[in-house]
Amino acid sequence: MSEPDPNPPASPEPAPEPAAQPAAAPAACQPSAASPPTASATPPASAAPSETPGACAPSPPPAAPEPPAPAPAAGTPGPAAPGTPALPAARSPAPRPRRPLPKDYKLRLTALGACAVLLVANIVLGIVVLTSRRQAPAPPPQEPPVPARGVVPPSALEGGGYADMKRLPELRAMMEKLRPLHQKIHKPGPIDWLTHHKEPGQTFAEYLRCEPVTLSASRKTICIQPLGEFTGTQRKIVLLAGEYMARYFSAEISVMEDLPLEVVPASARRGARGVGPQIKTPPGLSSVLAPRLPNDPAADNAVTALDLYPQDSWNFCFGQASLRERVGVWSLARYGDPDSSPEAFRLCLLRTLKVATHETGHMFSMYHCVLCECNMNGSNHMAESDAKPLWLCPECLAKVLWATGADPVGRYKKLAAFCAEQGLKEEQQFFEKSLEVLQKP
After folding, report:
1. SS3 label, residue 325
2. Does the global pTM surpass 0.70?
3. Domains by residue range for the chain, with CATH
4. Pairing status of strand 319-321 against strand 327-331
5. Across 101-115, 152-166, 238-252, 289-303, which has the greatest mean pLDDT?
6. For residue range 262-295, what is the model confidence (pLDDT) as tens digits?
7. Under a CB-based contact definition with an 8 Å cutoff, are residues 438 and 412 in contact?
8. Which of 18, 101, 122, 307 is most buried, most CB within 10 Å of its CB?
9. Element housing 221 (H / E)
10. DSSP 65
11. What is the Cα–Cα distance from 357 to 369, expressed in whole angstroms?
12. Is residue 1 pLDDT above 80, yes or no?
């Protein structure tokens, strides 16, 4: 038995496999530059694509480019640069645990709602109360108590005055008899006097309390002072107005000599405002009239054919008088042309009688009347003045009778006769009706 060879021959190593060569592109896909292109056969549609190097497989479509990464928002860290250690991700705050509602939350909500309703109700109520107070008409002034018999202001009897406290019952009874003949004052229109002049009025009792100006044995004359130029017809109307005032106030009337317009200072005159130059009324005329008055008259009326104005902001006025200084003025300027026709004459006369007695009534401390349709109503324009009557309401009639000592029956007889003479039929009928009522037992 032979021994094994200590150095056995080496086993032959297997030959290495040749490296895989890249398959050459088929001639149909990559034509040779030297040979002309040839058509390659296309396998049938049902056959699977050949995996042999000689087969031409379709190349995949190119991949669409990836959209650029959006820019990080302001304040947001972008991607870390290469080699920069990554930061730990920010943790969102843990949600707070909800507090449980109190057991009486429904009661609290109900109480809060009730408080809100009460607050709104109080606000609404306050608005309603304030609005109603603003819109509600002012309450009429409370009439002061009528002086008791034997209690009359001493100045009313000063100088042997005609006011007599024994007449108070008689005057009150007369007022009650005449009231049914008179109408309450109508609601003023947008441009009427009471719309722009809020006046409280004056009752007979209030008149007695103010210690009014009255006639007396030493003061019983009413003066009429013509100022400027007049036509013959205008002068006739002035004289008729004086005659009517004598019956109206049971006083003596004195028509003074004319004063030229030059006695009125330039500061009390201005240009036309529709009907010619204008003269400023008292106190502008007080300095003109006072030095020329006779000895202590009861009242002094200036009358002019020129237009009047009381203040620079006013367009005009029909007349104006002082309640205490016994000075006044009235104008014929806006009463039409009395020469144009008999009707125009009567209209101008009636308007003059109204303004003359109205302004003289102020000189006897009489306020504007706001109770009835009355000669002492204020007037803001001609239509309103024409709508007012020539007669007085019972309250204002009692004031005139108290201040002058006139007898109401005799006074109405004289006024009715004057109106009959001048063709003032409506006024004549009213005076006769009043006379009839007073003469009834």
Report:
1. coil
2. no
3. 215-352 (3.40.390.10)
4. antiparallel
5. 238-252
6. 888 888 888 878 788 888 886 556 667 767 666 6
7. yes
8. 307
9. strand 221-227
10. P
11. 14
12. no
